[in-house]
Specification:
single chain; 324 residues; TIM Barrel; 17% strand
Length: 324
């Protein structure tokens, strides 16, 4: 989560989607019906601390890079939001998938002009070397106002990048269309939609109360387009931590169950120690820091529906040795 945001928090009732559709396209690497792929982020140190503190390896790990620098893949990099180091994640967690947030604010025109083709080539090589499912969030939070993504340019860039990777014969990447998920009738999400032939997953952010209704509506859109649905970024912050991280988690567990969420990415960060967020009073969202929170987490995510790291995980997601 490289971008800053102003967030107001409120306890909100989750509205339930009355229908859902299980995607069957193997290339999406969606889990079987009734299962939820569990991922943790958002940086190497945080993920390591989570594993040490809970004794469990998540089904997936999260990382970030930018189209401008393509940092944090083969060497560690820290922009103030935690250490990004893709190769270390691949080595440390060989039985976990990877979710990558691709930052491209203020770069859309240059991407279409081919300025960053070298960086895309670097990323394509890294993706293929990963030898596991990778979920790539291209220009994550496309509708977030401060990202200032022109809908026409954004759609063109999303297609450009997917076409680039297809030409490079990247077969282990699924492409995620990720909304900030605040509903705004003046900014309809479909204005940014690259098309069914380019989007593999629909994803949302859930941090604030204002995003909950939007997430429910975006989930309905995913069902309409027969796409798997991912909570691509989530973390309790500010008032949620002060009042009750337990309640926040219980709401999310209910949402995941009722909405048939296919993948859940939890950012397990102590926001207050990260330079990028210093002074923002977002708090400490680590699961392992509080016994009550940790106990709830272990009980709920210990259920069979939540997919953790295992020798059978990749095959369960449709990834086989025949996919190079």
């Amino acid at each position: 989560m490289f971008n800053s945001r102003s967030i107001s928090f409120a306890i909100t009732t989750f509205l339930l989607c009355p229908f859902w559709i299980t995607p069957t396209q193997a290339s999406t690497f969606a889990p079987p019906s009734g299962k939820t792929l569990l991922l943790v982020g958002q940086d190497k140190k945080t993920i390591d601390a989570y594993v040490q503190g809970t004794g469990r390896v998540p089904g997936g790990v999260m990382m970030y890079t930018s189209i401008q620098k393509m940092e944090g893949l083969e060497e560690q990099a820290d922009c103030g939001s935690g250490c990004q180091f893709g190769n270390a994640l691949l080595t440390t967690y060989p039985q976990s998938v990877v979710q990558v947030g691709l930052y491209m604010v203020n770069a859309l025109g240059d991407i279409l002009d081919g300025k960053y083709d070298g960086n895309l080539k670097k990323l394509s090589r890294w993706l293929k070397r990963a030898k596991r499912p990778v979920y790539l969030r291209i220009g994550y939070e496309f509708d977030y106002v401060k990202n200032d993504y022109s809908p026409a340019q954004y759609k063109a860039v999303f297609r450009y990048i997917v076409d680039f990777f297809r030409r490079e014969k990247v077969t282990n990447a699924a492409y995620v269309w990720h909304a900030y998920s605040v509903l705004d009738v003046n900014r309809p999400w479909m204005d940014w939609y690259p098309g069914d032939e380019y989007v593999d997953w629909f994803g949302v952010s859930i941090f604030s109360g204002g995003q909950l209704y939007g997430a429910e509506r975006f989930r309905a859109l995913a069902a309409e387009h027969r796409k798997p649905f991912m909570i691509a970024e989530s973390s309790p912050m500010g008032i949620y931590i002060v009042r009750s991280q337990v309640n926040w988690l219980k709401h999310l567990f209910d949402f995941i169950d009722q909405q048939k969420v296919d993948a859940w990415c939890y950012i397990n960060s102590n926001w207050d120690i990260l330079p990028m967020y210093k002074g923002w009073s977002w708090g400490d969202a680590r699961i392992e820091k509080t016994p009550e929170v940790k106990d709830l987490w272990l009980k709920e995510t210990g259920q069979d529906r939540y997919l953790k790291a295992s020798k059978d995980l990749f095959e369960m997601l449709g990834y086989t040795s025949s996919i190079k």
